[in-house]
Amino acid sequence: MGEFLRKTFSVGKLRQLCVNTTLSNFVGYLAGSLVMLMTTYQTVEHRALRNLYGILPRKTIVVHVLPEWLEWTLAVLLGYVVMELVRHLIQNNRYLRLMDRSARHWGDGKPSQQSTAGRP
Protein backbone atom coordinates (compact mmCIF):
# COMPACT_ATOMS: atom_id res chain seq x y z
CA MET A 1 0.00 0.00 0.00
CA GLY A 2 2.83 2.38 0.84
CA GLU A 3 4.51 1.80 -2.51
CA PHE A 4 1.24 2.51 -4.32
CA LEU A 5 0.86 5.82 -2.46
CA ARG A 6 4.47 6.81 -3.18
CA LYS A 7 4.04 6.13 -6.90
CA THR A 8 0.64 7.82 -7.06
CA PHE A 9 1.59 10.95 -5.11
CA SER A 10 5.13 11.42 -6.33
CA VAL A 11 6.62 14.90 -6.48
CA GLY A 12 6.73 14.89 -10.28
CA LYS A 13 3.08 13.91 -10.63
CA LEU A 14 1.94 16.49 -8.09
CA ARG A 15 4.02 19.18 -9.80
CA GLN A 16 2.60 18.21 -13.20
CA LEU A 17 -0.94 18.28 -11.79
CA CYS A 18 -0.41 21.77 -10.34
CA VAL A 19 1.10 23.14 -13.56
CA ASN A 20 -1.60 21.62 -15.78
CA THR A 21 -4.42 22.84 -13.53
CA THR A 22 -2.98 26.34 -13.23
CA LEU A 23 -2.40 26.69 -16.96
CA SER A 24 -5.84 25.42 -17.93
CA ASN A 25 -7.60 27.57 -15.33
CA PHE A 26 -5.72 30.67 -16.50
CA VAL A 27 -6.56 30.08 -20.18
CA GLY A 28 -10.21 29.46 -19.24
CA TYR A 29 -10.25 32.70 -17.26
CA LEU A 30 -8.82 34.59 -20.24
CA ALA A 31 -11.50 33.14 -22.53
CA GLY A 32 -14.27 34.16 -20.12
CA SER A 33 -12.80 37.64 -19.79
CA LEU A 34 -12.63 37.95 -23.56
CA VAL A 35 -16.37 37.28 -23.78
CA MET A 36 -17.00 40.10 -21.32
CA LEU A 37 -14.73 42.47 -23.25
CA MET A 38 -16.37 41.67 -26.58
CA THR A 39 -19.94 42.14 -25.34
CA THR A 40 -19.52 45.46 -23.52
CA TYR A 41 -18.31 48.91 -24.48
CA GLN A 42 -18.03 52.33 -22.86
CA THR A 43 -19.56 55.55 -24.05
CA VAL A 44 -20.02 59.08 -22.74
CA GLU A 45 -23.54 60.08 -21.71
CA HIS A 46 -25.44 62.50 -23.94
CA ARG A 47 -26.65 65.94 -22.99
CA ALA A 48 -29.55 65.71 -20.60
CA LEU A 49 -31.13 67.38 -17.62
CA ARG A 50 -28.90 65.28 -15.35
CA ASN A 51 -25.77 67.07 -16.49
CA LEU A 52 -27.48 70.41 -17.17
CA TYR A 53 -27.27 69.89 -20.92
CA GLY A 54 -23.50 69.56 -21.03
CA ILE A 55 -22.49 72.15 -18.42
CA LEU A 56 -21.60 69.51 -15.84
CA PRO A 57 -19.00 66.88 -16.78
CA ARG A 58 -20.34 63.86 -18.60
CA LYS A 59 -20.06 60.40 -17.08
CA THR A 60 -18.74 57.28 -18.75
CA ILE A 61 -21.41 54.61 -19.13
CA VAL A 62 -20.85 50.87 -19.67
CA VAL A 63 -23.19 49.49 -22.32
CA HIS A 64 -23.95 45.77 -22.42
CA VAL A 65 -24.74 44.35 -25.86
CA LEU A 66 -26.33 41.25 -24.33
CA PRO A 67 -28.33 41.03 -21.11
CA GLU A 68 -25.95 40.71 -18.17
CA TRP A 69 -27.22 37.26 -17.16
CA LEU A 70 -26.61 35.92 -20.69
CA GLU A 71 -23.19 37.57 -20.84
CA TRP A 72 -22.21 36.02 -17.52
CA THR A 73 -23.51 32.59 -18.55
CA LEU A 74 -21.62 32.68 -21.85
CA ALA A 75 -18.42 33.71 -20.08
CA VAL A 76 -18.68 30.86 -17.58
CA LEU A 77 -19.57 28.22 -20.18
CA LEU A 78 -16.92 29.28 -22.68
CA GLY A 79 -14.30 29.52 -19.93
CA TYR A 80 -15.15 26.01 -18.75
CA VAL A 81 -15.05 24.53 -22.27
CA VAL A 82 -11.70 26.17 -23.02
CA MET A 83 -10.31 25.05 -19.66
CA GLU A 84 -11.28 21.42 -20.33
CA LEU A 85 -9.94 21.62 -23.90
CA VAL A 86 -6.55 22.86 -22.69
CA ARG A 87 -6.47 20.17 -20.00
CA HIS A 88 -7.27 17.52 -22.64
CA LEU A 89 -4.58 18.84 -25.00
CA ILE A 90 -1.97 18.84 -22.27
CA GLN A 91 -2.76 15.27 -21.22
CA ASN A 92 -2.82 13.89 -24.77
CA ASN A 93 0.06 15.84 -26.31
CA ARG A 94 2.90 13.42 -26.91
CA TYR A 95 5.48 16.20 -27.25
CA LEU A 96 4.77 17.43 -23.74
CA ARG A 97 5.17 13.88 -22.45
CA LEU A 98 8.49 13.58 -24.31
CA MET A 99 9.73 16.82 -22.76
CA ASP A 100 8.81 15.52 -19.31
CA ARG A 101 10.73 12.28 -19.88
CA SER A 102 13.81 14.05 -21.25
CA ALA A 103 13.84 16.39 -18.25
CA ARG A 104 13.69 13.38 -15.95
CA HIS A 105 16.68 11.70 -17.67
CA TRP A 106 18.69 14.90 -18.04
CA GLY A 107 19.68 15.24 -14.39
CA ASP A 108 21.02 11.70 -13.84
CA GLY A 109 23.96 12.06 -16.28
CA LYS A 110 22.72 9.32 -18.61
CA PRO A 111 21.68 10.18 -22.16
CA SER A 112 17.96 10.06 -22.72
CA GLN A 113 16.38 7.73 -25.27
CA GLN A 114 15.07 10.65 -27.30
CA SER A 115 18.53 12.18 -27.80
CA THR A 116 20.06 8.93 -29.11
CA ALA A 117 17.05 7.82 -31.18
CA GLY A 118 17.97 9.88 -34.27
CA ARG A 119 21.64 8.89 -34.35
CA PRO A 120 22.90 5.83 -36.35
Kindly describe this structure.
By secondary structure, this protein is mainly alpha-helical. The chain has a domain at 15-39 and 67-104. The protein is 65% helix and 8% strand. The chain is built from 5 helices and 2 strands, in the order H-H-E-E-H-H-H. It has helices spanning 2-8, 11-38, 68-92, 94-106, 113-117; strands at residues 40-44, 60-64. The chain has a two-stranded antiparallel ribbon with strand order 1-2. Helix 2 packs antiparallel against helix 3 (68-92). It is rod-shaped and about 75 Å long.
* Individual helix count: 5
Can you tell me the overall shape? rod-shaped
Strand arrangement across the biggest beta sheet: 1-2
The pLDDT mean sits at 82
| Strand content range | 5-15%
Low-confidence stretches: none
The H/E string reads HHEEHHH
Portion of residues in helices? 55-70%
State the secondary-structure class.
mainly alpha
**Biggest beta-sheet profile:** 2 strands, antiparallel
Q: Compute the CA-based radius of gyration.
A: 25 Å
Number of strands: 2
- Report, as a whole number of angstroms, the end-to-end distance: 43 Å
Secondary structure: elements and pairs:
Blueprint: H1 2-8, H2 11-38, E1 40-44, E2 60-64, H3 68-92, H4 94-106, H5 113-117
Antiparallel strand pairs: 1-2
Helix pairs in contact: 2-3
Give a brief rundown of this model.
By secondary structure, the chain is mostly helical. It has helices spanning 2-8, 11-38, 68-92, 94-106, 113-117, and strands at 40-44, 60-64. The protein has a domain at 15-39 and 67-104.
